[in-house]
Amino acid sequence: MTISSTQLFVGIDGGGSKCKAIVVNQDNDILGAGISGPANPLHGFNQATHSIIDSTQLALKSACLDHISLSELTVGAGLAGVNLPSLFEQMTNWGHPFKHFFLAHDLFIANLGAHHCHHGAVIITGTGSCGFSSTDEGELLVGGHGFPQGDKASGAWFGLQACEQVLLSLDDLIPSSLMNKALLAKLSCDSATDIVATIAGENATFYAQLATIVFDAAEQGDQIAISIIKDGVDYLAALAKKLVTNASYEVKLSILGGLSLRLQPWLLAALSPTLQRQLVTPLSAPEFGAVLFAQGKLHG
Amino acid sequence: MTISSTQLFVGIDGGGSKCKAIVVNQDNDILGAGISGPANPLHGFNQATHSIIDSTQLALKSACLDHISLSELTVGAGLAGVNLPSLFEQMTNWGHPFKHFFLAHDLFIANLGAHHCHHGAVIITGTGSCGFSSTDEGELLVGGHGFPQGDKASGAWFGLQACEQVLLSLDDLIPSSLMNKALLAKLSCDSATDIVATIAGENATFYAQLATIVFDAAEQGDQIAISIIKDGVDYLAALAKKLVTNASYEVKLSILGGLSLRLQPWLLAALSPTLQRQLVTPLSAPEFGAVLFAQGKLHG
């Protein structure tokens, strides 16, 4: 069967660490997928646009559709960072190589993917963290203020907390933690001085890679790690409450992103019974939400 | 009177925000002073060496000693960051323009300046924070791990805490704070989104300029600001205790740096009666300690 390119849609989910793309046909079957580098334009416009093109080409290749030109594709993209008006404008003005390029922020397409409709709420905890809801009261975007000043309970935030606490512990100013040995090993370091030299000037993506150290230690009962997770989860519970309380009906809420599986048991314990009931497994991934978004834009 | 250049010493105190230099004669009279830009080599070797030369030339000029060549000066320099061995080595290998250039870390010369002897302890809270003590048990350097992972209770740390709490407050996830209006005004911003766009990617020096917002609000009774200061001061109290407890005698302790005056009343309340008694006003500034250091090196 020959696939006409007019039937092809690409969905992009671009975050601070990576960019995911899928190619789907008119029946919404996923034909291929690709992953490339960071695509949050806050950390570089050129990097973001490069990652979008790269992931799309990888998705075409995995679908054996290398012969399709980018100029034949209708692309929906949800990107972290474009909630900042200046970045939304910059990305909208991009001289993109596609037939159509529809842009939304990552939370909008994540919500659409999770609930297959515009009503619902999502919290994403990957490299960054952010909450979004769309209800009869309108849209609400909470958090997502970036690293290190915001994005509490994100991978980068957990990684930074781990570094802070380990440095305090190695200085003997707080008790010892299981994270001390784990962080030294992960960074191939021998001392606090060594850690500082290794992490100096590093970005959110780097810190996000250290988040698992906190969860590993907490799951073994480490009190310092547990305190970090409780602090993060209390924030997510407040975020969840804020996202859904204004609606006149029970809004479905999903937790997405690289940390969601490890956070889920801790978060459940921090949510009220009502919020626990509202928590649902997402129907599809954000990149599929980006396809639904592009289809909606194209078909009016 | 003609001053012979062989009698001239320069003392340098180089930190993350600025570099201070003084010129003194053989009687240790301060003849002139100069201030230039950042001199922590962690944030750039070229910037650090440029600031050292710049501040020295400004100090010579203010002493009407423009005719003196740099190659005739004996310089003692205390620099933040050179507790990292790689940076100490890089600065030691600098092809400097002086007759002599003696290098130590900023805490070593601050301690020497504060107590006019090698025995004593200092805590510096300026752009960064760090503790140092020199006792019969040896030297102890605690903290000073940089921004954002360390340097708790420093100007940069207070500024970052202010941003974090204001963003949470503007998101309506914590109560309102006096800091909200103050930060928006300071940054000429209208919203959380606006704040994020302004502070994205900023460094420790930028955040340190926001520290006064926390103290202003706390002194007016703002509970969120008071919590931040208490968290910082508890750290400094633990640091102070750690610095002096190993010695077999009562070690004198001084608090130095741009935030020391505003921190002093909060810190006193957090210290034990013994530590309160050990707290003394510094005899001289760190840059004078750098002169004493150079003289000691030169004479033996």
Summarize it.
Two copies of one chain form a homodimer. Chain A is an alpha/beta fold.
Summarize the structure in words.
The structure is a homodimer of 300-residue chains. Chain A is of the alpha/beta class. Helix content of chain A is 45%, strand content 18%. Chain A has helices at 45-62, 85-92, 106-115, 155-170, 178-186, 192-199, 204-208, 211-219, 223-244, 260-270, 273-278, 286-298, and strands at residues 9-14, 19-24, 30-36, 74-79, 100-105, 120-125, 129-135, 138-143, 253-256. In chain A, the strands form two sheets. The first copy, chain A, has a five-stranded mixed β-sheet with strand order 3-2-1-4-5, sandwiched between helices. A four-stranded mixed β-sheet of chain A has the order 8-7-6-9, with helices on both faces. In chain A, helix 2 (85-92) links the parallel strand 4 and strand 5 (100-105). Chain A is globular, with a radius of gyration of 20 Å. The two termini of chain A are 29 Å apart. The model of chain A has no long low-confidence stretch (mean pLDDT 93). Chains A and B meet through helix 4, helix 6 and helix 9 of A and helix 4, helix 6 and helix 9 of B.
